[in-house]
Amino acid sequence: METNELITGKAFVNGRWIVGTDSFEVVNPATDTVVENVADLTVSDVRYAVKVAHHAWISFKTMDVVQRASLLENWYRLILEHKQELAEIITVESGKSLTDSLGEVDYGASFVLWFAEESKRCYGETMPAPKMSNRILTIKQGIGVVAAITPWNFPLAMVTRKVAPAIAAGCTVILRPASQTPLTALALAILAEKAGCPAGVFNVVTGTDSSGIGYELSTNPLIRKLSFTGSTSVGKQLMKQAADHIKKVSLELGGNAPFIVFEDADIEAAVQGAIFAKFRNGGQTCVAVNRFLIQDAIFDEFSQRLMEAVATLVVGNGLDEGVQLGPLINKKGLDKVHKHVTDAVDKGARILQGGKAIGGLFYEATVLADVPVNALIAKEETFGPVASLFRFKTEEEAIQLANNTEFGLAAYFYSNDVHRCWRVAEALEAGMVGVNEGQISFAGAPFGGIKESGIGREGSRYGLDEYTELKYINFGVAKR
């Protein structure tokens, strides 16, 4: 990668770039080489950032909505102008293929443009009053200082999906990106500053003290809203901590997505959808398919076609031409994939394709057939390039298997029976359902889950509501 002017190791607080008293290394998972040393801020540094964000909010909340929209539009244009540089940063710190990273830049930028436009449509309403001497109305106001904690697997899109609606609503933000992938967030801060973002409105605090920083962001009384994307276990802990101050929370947590293929489905379309829904970013996405449920009558045909498609996927350094799958993010992730595959095979599953590590943090794109329901991979999120195929006989059995999990983020199914499509879409316990579609997320749709997959929605008009408070006003109208 050529010199990239958007790479910095300094944190961004109150419009200033700071080095901190210590630093940590960001490592390219494909090459195991250091990309950059980044400021390792302390809890005291984060507490200071919260104070300046609160101070900035006092004035920023009075900014005209058209000015906030213009700020976001400027940021959007700069993100697209620097698409290549941003994509390269995403690839070297997360490992995903450059093709995936370029797609993420477009996807992430779309949220900035969406909320620039949506900021002008943050409507209240009038309501009939019980007496003619009164007028009743509601307005929506920005909630205040927002703490946003983002994961490593989408280091750009998860930032814009939180920061853009917060700014659109008139909030200020403390962003804590994952320590594995902070460089993309810092690059976005460089562009936000160029776009004219006022000092203290968008702050990026980097650090390795995850529990300490998380505790500060979830308990500091100046923070009114906490938005977190990550594991269910961490989300539960943050929610408990935030409860002491009754903070508004949005949590986008783990998943265990089913992908059902019925015997009346278009199998070729289902295979194409499966490749995207399972293998994007090497299976390291929260909406990645974890369980393929295939009806008996077409199990052999589907598994054969999927195996053939998976065999063509190229694994390697994401910056190399033609690579489609990069490495796992770290050894812990690699070990979990190996554990899940080994457990499934020990319990009777068959390896149709792949099934082993191939050096460093790389793992073959894998297809397992006839996986038993008691396998670990049936219950736990694998977060890796492994397609696990289970058999079912009836529609009722498929729905029961799909819903047999504490998670409820995404679900997918393929069928050409319109009646079945309605029945199954309504019966699946998930916040998002793809019907004959493996790509379900875009800025105008509400992204989020049910059960232990989270609270709240991101994207769409509902995503703006997450950063506002609804105020009811009752006017008494004096008679003349």
Classification by helices and strands: alpha/beta
By DSSP, the count of extended strands is 22
CATH architecture of the largest domain: 3-Layer(aba) Sandwich
- The CATH topology of the largest domain, please? Aldehyde Dehydrogenase, Chain A, domain 1
Global outline: globular
Low-confidence stretches: none
Protein described:
This protein is an alpha/beta fold. The chain has two domains: 11-253 and 453-472, Aldehyde Dehydrogenase, Chain A, domain 1, CATH 3.40.605; 257-442, Aldehyde Dehydrogenase, Chain A, domain 2 (3-Layer(aba) Sandwich). It is built from 15 helices and 22 strands. It has helices spanning 43-60, 65-81, 83-94, 98-118, 157-169, 183-194, 210-219, 232-243, 267-279, 299-311, 331-346, 376-379, 395-403, 418-427, 460-465; strands at 11-13, 16-18, 23-28, 33-39, 125-127, 134-142, 145-149, 172-176, 202-204, 223-229, 248-252, 257-261, 289-295, 350-353, 366-369, 386-392, 407-408, 410-414, 432-435, 450-451, 454-455, 468-476. The strands form six sheets. The protein has a seven-stranded mixed β-sheet, sandwiched between helices. β10 (223-229), α8 and β11 (248-252) form a beta-alpha-beta unit. α2 (65-81) packs antiparallel against α5 (157-169). The longest helix is centred in the N-terminal third of the chain and has 21 residues, at 98-118. The mean pLDDT is 97.
Task: Give a brief rundown of this model.
The active site is at 252. This is Succinate-semialdehyde dehydrogenase (NADP(+)). The protein is α/β, with parallel strands linked by helices and 480 residues long.
